[in-house]
Amino acid sequence: MDGLLDTALAWVEATGVAIAVGNSVSLTAWLSAIHLIGVTLVGGGALVAGLRCSGLLFADQELRTVLQPAGRAIGAGVMVSVVTGVLLVSPRAVASAANGFFQWKMSFLLAAAACDVLFRRWGSRLDHRAAAAGGLLRSVFYGGVIVAGCAFILLE
Q: Whole domain around residue 92: which residue ranges?
């Protein structure tokens, strides 16, 4: 399996898009700036949702009133971040996939996405404590994505 994955990642690095991103400081800077906007949407939405679920913020507002816009911000931020992240990683896909911080970032992202799917499916059936715990857990996972992503950039 590793041979197939390495071959696929090497192919990604050899694409015209990856070469263009890798050879352009300005393109990398623009993609990084847009990626940061996406990450900010994810982090802000997750923070607001987690604080509302715990009752520490907007406790007087109905849960759905706060979680729906926060969820839309998270969704938009994830889409922007995934697209720009793939483009940013493409010039160094093999090294990125081998990086422990990148692996943690992707693991946290999958866990957060799983929480989002579960919340959308069963969120309205959860009692207050389960919703609060789930919301905080989702915020922790998205926070993990952000922390691991920063470590990946700063310590690679």
A: 2-155
